[in-house]
Amino acid sequence: MNIQIENLANECVIIGLSGGVDSAVAALLLKQQGADVQALHMTNWNDEDGYCNAADDLQDAKKVCKKLSIPLHHVNFSKEYADLVFKDFLYEYKNGRTPNPDILCNREIKFGVFITYAKRLGAKYIATGHYADLNKNIDSTELIKPKDKNKDQTYFLHAVNEAALKQTLFPLCNLTKSEVRDIAKMNGLLNYDKKDSTGICFIGERPFREFLEKFLPAQPGAMIDNDGNIIGQHQGLMYYTIGQRQGLNIGGRKDSNNEPWYVLKKDLTTNTLTVVQGDHDDLYSRSLIVSNFSWIGSAEELILGTKTINCHGKVRYRQPDQACKAELLKDNKIKIVFDEPQRAITEGQAAVLYKNDRCLGGGSIDEVIK
Q1: Total of domains in the chain
Q2: Degrees, nearest 5: CA angle 65-68-71
Q3: Distances (CA, A) of 186 to 38, 39, 61, 358
Q4: What would the pLDDT profile of 110-129 be if each residue is shown by its tens digit?
Q5: Claim to verify: residue 257 and residue 339 sit in the same structural domain
Q6: Does the residue 114 lie in any domain?
Q7: How many CA atoms lie within 13 A of 95 on its CB side?
Q8: Across 6-10, 75-79, 114-118, 200-204, least confident range
Q9: pTM score, whole prediction
């Protein structure tokens, strides 16, 4: 949905302003469309150790608002984040899975409590600096890939409910990242060259293991090869993810070649970590089961009649779309069978389906079928 077709004149739009260049340019574009733009900066994590950039981001947001002459609201959603996102994050790691908290944060915070708060401020729409597009019809709202496929964030937005998307504007839908930075520079926004944020927001620059051990006790155990031979010790299953290569600390072995080792599986019952050497066949799978699948808009109608649909899917953000078939199972579960084997499919991560540029929805990977 091109933002220019929206009649935004004098309409109250509350934009989530992070302090980064994307949301800054989104605010600028909304104002150029005649909207009554107000900014809302969210603090979602109480950073006691100083690893996050929350204070700097707030200052950058203030500078943007001053430049654009728009009011800034600052709200602390850290309690809601702890209850709705972080608690699930810890639960998943404790149970041997590898979650993606950004997906839950979008659904529960950025397009959840944020909308409720924005409505109290009088918003007709909310807006964000996400790279995504929307196709709004009378009966449904579809989530569409943006112009900049390299920055496409629909993978992280697949769990946002349709009612929230219907009230949302994505002003950057028809822009590339380089175009966004150019617009920022031309309009005197001081954060035009600000580095993109990466990684999990509440961890910041600190080592992941250092952060996680503050909340979950580590339980070291045996590291074994695919034949059950003990070849080392792991520091705690929660610190490893399927396909991981770095940090295994496996020294040279006389009966082994020089190929690197990779994590194959985690067994909570025996507290063992299984690793394989080289690009092992066991790292690849074609099928998986997704639980709590969230369909976007009328996408579910595509599968209801035949119970199957040919489409494309991905099991991680940066992965190119892979041809697959999705089958509707009981209890809101979906079986996905890829045309080609996929490497290191990880339980707890999201599998997201697409039909051309339309995001159909997605869910948490519950089971990987070898």
Answers
A1: 3
A2: 45
A3: 22, 21, 18, 32
A4: 999 999 999 999 999 999 99
A5: no
A6: yes
A7: 10
A8: 200-204
A9: 0.93
